[in-house]
């Protein structure tokens, strides 16, 4: 869901769907296991890749930059969003809502509503492919994929089998835990990994990601790096740039030291506006200076401008609302 983002244009708005009542946020770092959180059973086989009952696209918001945000209404009236990028990539959701509650993100404000079924995840790709080619699927939309791990992994198997999308083009984005990395490494797909790190200081990360597993950031990075080395794929480190919070030299230099000599790249993502958070995006020159600083230290870094911000489809802006 990250590229270079941009203007407006929205499909006509259908009647509002009934609201799904959010389930209260659980204990910090504990994936929801209650029966009501578990994904629904997979539907019987059908000739269509978007299986009956997996939802329908009720809105399509076209951005001036060529990307588009799709709103998918599910069979129970809940809604999720998926973003079609101009590169042939697609950002998909794995949950309605999110339990992690990142302070800079819209998705988790009301907590977790429920997990998506395998068919509801795969259907997002089918709906997008009706509109444009999809060559890469990013599990970076609404939700924390590791909290719906079984369904997410089964969806990846289906995407390889039915859509011909290779494992290097399946990107699993997560706040991370060693247990999750062990499960991924034991699985047949072994997708590319994007670690949502955002801070190297444990206290700061716990403040920004209040319900992520309480793991020292260095230990988390090392565990993610071990997975990526085992899967023979480079690690992507996701870092949302927040002015005066995690864009300083002390924080970022520590990350560069961890990454130096490793098969990894950091994606610096300038924060996208979420009302009421109190955060701000660093200036353009500061963002560019960070990338240059990492390059001078021999560390791969990219500045990733989110697309679809003009239609509320940028990183951190998805909310699963119709209208």
Put simply, the count of helices is 7
- The overall pLDDT, averaged over residues, is 86
CATH class categorisation: Alpha Beta
**String of helices and strands:** EEEEEEEHEHEHEHHEHEHEE
The total strand number stands at 14
Dominant shape: globular
Helical amount:
25-40%
The total tally of domains equals 1
Give the low-pLDDT segments.
Answer: 3-48
Full CATH superfamily name: Aldolase class I
Gyration radius from CA atoms, angstroms: 18 Å
CATH architectural label? Alpha-Beta Barrel
Strand line-up of the largest beta sheet? 2-3-4-5-8-9-10-11-12-13
Distance between the termini: 21 Å
* Largest sheet geometry: 10 strands, mixed
Structural class: alpha/beta
Structure description:
The structure is a single chain. 25% of the residues lie in helices and 20% in strands. The chain is of the alpha/beta class and 323 residues long. A ten-stranded mixed beta sheet has the order 2-3-4-5-8-9-10-11-12-13. It has a two-stranded antiparallel sheet with strand order 1-14. The chain contains seven helices and 14 strands. Mean pLDDT is 86; it is low at 3-48. Strand 11, helix 6 and strand 12 form a beta-alpha-beta unit. The protein is globular, with a radius of gyration of 18 Å. It has one domain (2-7, 51-311): Aldolase class I (TIM Barrel, Alpha-Beta Barrel), CATH 3.20.20.70.
